[in-house]
Request: fold
Amino acid sequence: MSDASLPRAMRQPFSLKLASNAFLLVWLLLAAFPLVWVLAMSFKSPVDAFSSNALEVIIGPRTLADGNGVSIIDIALGIAVAWLSIKAATRWLMPMAAGEGTLQRVFSWAVIAIGFAVLFVLGFFVVAPWLAQPLEALLGPLGRPVLGLTTQHYEAVWIENAFYENFQTSLLVTAGVVTVSLTVGTLAGYGLARSGSTLAFWILIIALIFRALPHSVLVAGYLPVFINSAELLRPILGENAPTLYGQPLAVIAVLVAINQPFTIWMLRSFFQNIPVDLDESARVDGCTHFQAFRWVIMPVMWPGVITTGLFSFLLAYNDFLVTSLLLDASNQTMVPAIAGYFNRETTTTDQVEAVAAAVSITAPLFLLVMIFQRQIVSGLTAGAVKG
Amino acid sequence: MQRSVWNTQRPGGARLKFRTFAAFVGPSILMMLLFIAFPLVTVFINSFQVTNPVFTTQEVETCTPGFLTQTCTTEVKTIPVIGDDGEVVTVTEWVGFASYANVLGGERAMSALAGFDFGALLRIDFWKALRFTLTFTLFTLPFVLGLGLAIAVVVNNAARHIKGPVIFVSLLPFIITPVIGALSIRWLFYGDGIVTVWLEALMNTDLSIAANGWAIEFLMMFYRVWHVAPFAFVIFYAGLQTVNQDTLESAIIDGASRWERLRYVVIPHLMPLIVFITLIHLMDAYRAFEEVIGFSSESYRITLQYLTWDYLTPDDAGNRAVSSASASAMLTMIGVVVLLAAPLRRTWRDHRGA
Reply:
C-alpha cells in the first residue's frame, strides 16, 4: 500500500513510523538472537564459544590459532556455492516436479531434495576446496584464514557419540506418527465435518478435554502397563508377547493418540471449508460415501492435510516427555538424548557438543519453516479465524 | 470462536447415516479410547493402590573365623521374598487416599496450614509446583497477548516486501523444539553467558543467575513469552486483515485518534481471537514442563507436570513411584477441569441454542 492511496487521516506521521519500525527491529533481534548465537557457538573451540567477549565468539581467535579457520576466499566461495545450488535447484530441478497426481509429486519432490543435497555436497566438499587452494596461494594476504571455524563438535556428536542412531529413531517415530495420525485423522475429520449430530458434538468436546490433558497424566497410565505388557498379554498372544516399553512402535501409537484430538479439530475445520455440494454431486453420480471421500474430497483437501501433517510432525519431533519415559537409553530420539549432554556437563567441550547437537536438531525445523511457511500460518489461523 | 463453529454445518442432504459416520470416526475413537481414556482409568485406580515388594524378616547368622572358635553374630534382616520364577514378589494394596496425602505433604502440610506458615507449605514439592505453575501461567498471559498484538500491528504496518522474511524470523521461536529453545536462552545467561556478562558490565555487579531461584523463574517466563508470542502474533495478524475498513473510516471521520481506533474498533473485533489465544495459552502453560528440563531448575522451580514426570522416572534404586505419580496426575487434572469448565459450559449453551 503506497502512502498516496490512503486517506489523509490514515497516513502516519514520521515519528510513529520510526517507532513502529524500531519496535519491529527489536522484536526480530529478540527472536533470532538466541538461535544465531547458539549457531555461532557451535562452530568454535570451547574457549571461544564461552568467551565473555562477544567479538571473540564471532571471530574465534583461539579456534583460528588451533589451525581451524577460513579465509575471505573460502567465505566468498561458500556463499557462491550455496547461491548457485539454490539457483540450480529452483531453475532446473523445480520445473521437473510439475507432475500430476500425488504420488508422482511426492516422488519428484524427493528427487529434487536429493538432487539439491548432492549439488550442495559436491559444491562444498569437492569444487570449493579445489578452487580455493590455488587461489589462496595466489592472493597471499587475502588467502590467510581470518575467521575461526571448526566442525569438530559436529563430528564428535554425530560420529563418536553415534547421534545418527538417535536420528534414525526420531525419523522412524515422526514418520510413523505423521502417517498414522493423518490416515486416522482425515477419516474422522471428514465424518465429524459432515455430521451435525449431537454425538459428533460430544466427540469433539471430549476431544477438546483430551487436548488439555497434561501428557504426564497419560504416561502415568501407560508406564506400568507397558513395562509389564509381556505378562499381561501372554494369555492372549502366547509366548512371544512383546514388552512394549522401549519399543518405538508403541511410542508411535501413544503419540498418535495424544495428537488425535488436535488433528481431528484441525482437519474438521479444513473439511468444513469444502462445499457440501461437492459431496452431493458425487453421491448423485452414484458414489458411496467412501468413494466420494476418496476420489472427490481428498484431491481438494491436500493443503489441509499437508498443514495438519506439519503440526503432527512438530509434535512428534519436539516431544521430550513421552519419549524420555517410554523409550530406554539404547534407542532414544534426538531431543531426550540431548539431555544426556547437559546432565554430564563437566567440561566445556561437553557443553559445546550439546550446543552442536542442539543446532543439529534445529536445522531440519529451520528448513521446514522455510519451505512450508505459508502452510504453517494457514494452519495456525485455521482453528481461530475460520472456526 | 465456538459460536460460528456450530452454525457453519447443517449440510442437510449430505448428512451421514450413523453407520457410515461410525465407520469414518471409528479408528480415531478407538485410538483415543485405548490410549487416552483407558490410561485415565488406570491412573485413577493406581492412585488408590500401592505396589510394594513383599519383605520377610529372617535371622541371619554371620560367622567370621576367629581363634579357637568362630565369632558368630545373629541379626534380623529384612529381605524381599523371591518367587518361584526368580522375580521379587510384589503385593498390591488398596491404600485409599494415602498416596494423595503423601503427595500433598500429609502432616507437614497440615501443620503448615494450621500455623499459616506459607514458607513451610511451599517447601513441599506439590505446593511448590502448584505455586510456580499458577504464577507462571497467569503472569505470562498478558505479556503473550500484548506482545503478540504489538508485533501484529507493527508487521501489518510494515512495507509489503519485508513482511515475508519478518514472518519467517518471527515463527522461529514458536517452531523450535521447546527444550532446545529453553537451552538456547539458558546458554546466554547461565555461568558466564554473554548476556550475563553484558548485564554485569552495565550494573557493575557480580551476577550468578543459575543459583538464584527468582532469576530462573524470570528466565522461564521470558522463554515462554518468547516461545508463544509468535503464535499470538500470527493469529492476530490474520485477524487484522479482516478488520472492517468502513468502520475504521467512519471512526476517523468521527475524529477518533489512532489509539482510540485501536481501542474501540480493532480490539473489539479481535475479541474472539483474544479469548481463543487465552484458552490455548492457559491449557499449554498449565502443563509447562520443558522449561524445567531446559533450565535445569528442578532444585529451585518445578511445575506440576514435572512433578508427575519426576515420580515416574526411576530413582537410584530403579523404582518408579507409580502411585504417587498417579495421585499427582489426578490432582493436576483438577486444574484442567477448573480451567475448561467455563468455556465448555458456554459451548454447550451455544450448541443447544443453535
Observations:
- Residues 3-155 of chain A form one domain.
- The mean pLDDT of chain A is 77.
